Amino acid sequence: MSATSSRITGVHTYDIRFPTSREHDGSDAMNPDPDYSAAYLVLRTDAGDGVEGHGFTFTIGRGNDVQVAAIDALRRHVVGRRVEEVCGDPGSLHRDLVGDSQLRWLGPEKGVMHMAIGAVVNAVWDLAAKRAGKPLWKLLADASPEWLVSQVDFRYIDDAISPDDALALLRARADGRVEGERVLLERGYPAYTTSPGWLGYADDKLVRLAREAVGQGFGQIKLKVGADLADDVRRCRLAREAVGPGVRIAIDANQRWGVREAVEWVGALAESDPYWIEEPTSPDDILGHAAIRRAVAPVKVATGEHAHNRIVFKQLLQAEAIDVLQIDAARVGGVNENLAILLLAAKFGVPVCPHAGGVGLCELVQHLSMFDFVAVSGTTRDRVIEYVDHLHGHFVDPVRIRDGHYTAPTAPGFSAAMRPEAIATYTYPGGAFWAADLATRQEQQGMTA
């Protein structure tokens, strides 16, 4: 079948879960026992070339039941679309998905349905980049400013950034794109690591991993805080002693505190010279973040991984509530909405340091930061992408870290495809791992009956 007549024929969903809670990987004050999971989908076509679009959104376990159902609810908008048209204009699908009034009612533009939209939209971008033979960051960086602006929904944010503003930002970087790409391919993009900092880790593991991070070239680590103040003071002291004065230590409360408590807690941890406090309070509390920012300076305030959409980011920026903006590749409505958020951050001059970790979030978000460097901001100053060192082996094109930097992907696509054997093993509940796990538990229950 010709490329011009081929259509999307299927949206296939998978509930993929990893048992990370058993080693406390990913544990924090708000989420003590996460099983890192992906509500995963594959777009298939009748083009005959075998090229597929892969996408997912991240959950921490049982939420996959709901998230997979939400993705399935969007299937009617996707199946039957012409491949050439949807890959040439992913924004058209984004607008249709957001515009389904009966599903929009469940948000609007927030929560489970919006994350499902993001997963589907990201799968289309993966398909488009593969068909173009480019990694996603380069597909975006090579695009014209006019086309990129056409992919952004400016509704609700044009009081902060207009299409003309966005065009001006992108055109201002046009002459620097070639040099930016050269630097990116040569040097990579700076990373920081959260791997030493999970709240369930013993002190000796924290210290060992912090020292290893410095040896691997990371200039920043992050610790989870917020469960017990005395414990946090001790752990921050140990981390500071392990990494020395020249390495930044970020701290992350995962929304655990109210405004007053956040100010008091950060004040108590100030002796360890934290660089930023992440998610100090509810992600919906714009004015609360602004109050915390004023009170804890010079410690910076960072948030965004749970911000629902571009409108929340707009308000965080307008209220001068954050020093660091943290996009998430799978929380908002996919690449299109993240383009809007990156442009907003550039307009307000606030650095973007994405949230990653999870299942595949590092793989995805590296592309967005690299595009931002090449085509929008032109700088990596005070900008780092989060990195954790687990679950990458399950991906066909996993992230590659060299001397504390993400190496720019060169394979076509969004780096979203999981290995078939990983899908077969960890699909819940019938995959090989979970079926064996159930059999073991049933056997143990029989022995104790």
TrEMBL record:
<dbReference type="Pfam" id="PF13378">
    <property type="entry name" value="MR_MLE_C"/>
</dbReference>
<feature type="domain" description="Mandelate racemase/muconate lactonizing enzyme C-terminal">
    <location>
        <begin position="203"/>
        <end position="299"/>
    </location>
</feature>
<dbReference type="Pfam" id="PF02746">
    <property type="entry name" value="MR_MLE_N"/>
</dbReference>
<dbReference type="InterPro" id="IPR034610">
    <property type="entry name" value="L-fuconate_dehydratase"/>
</dbReference>
<dbReference type="InterPro" id="IPR029065">
    <property type="entry name" value="Enolase_C-like"/>
</dbReference>
<keyword id="KW-0456">Lyase</keyword>
<protein>
    <recommendedName>
        <fullName>L-fuconate dehydratase</fullName>
        <ecNumber>4.2.1.68</ecNumber>
    </recommendedName>
</protein>
<dbReference type="InterPro" id="IPR036849">
    <property type="entry name" value="Enolase-like_C_sf"/>
</dbReference>
<dbReference type="InterPro" id="IPR013342">
    <property type="entry name" value="Mandelate_racemase_C"/>
</dbReference>
<dbReference type="InterPro" id="IPR018110">
    <property type="entry name" value="Mandel_Rmase/mucon_lact_enz_CS"/>
</dbReference>
<dbReference type="InterPro" id="IPR029017">
    <property type="entry name" value="Enolase-like_N"/>
</dbReference>
<dbReference type="InterPro" id="IPR013341">
    <property type="entry name" value="Mandelate_racemase_N_dom"/>
</dbReference>
<keyword id="KW-0479">Metal-binding</keyword>
<keyword id="KW-0460">Magnesium</keyword>
<dbReference type="InterPro" id="IPR046945">
    <property type="entry name" value="RHMD-like"/>
</dbReference>
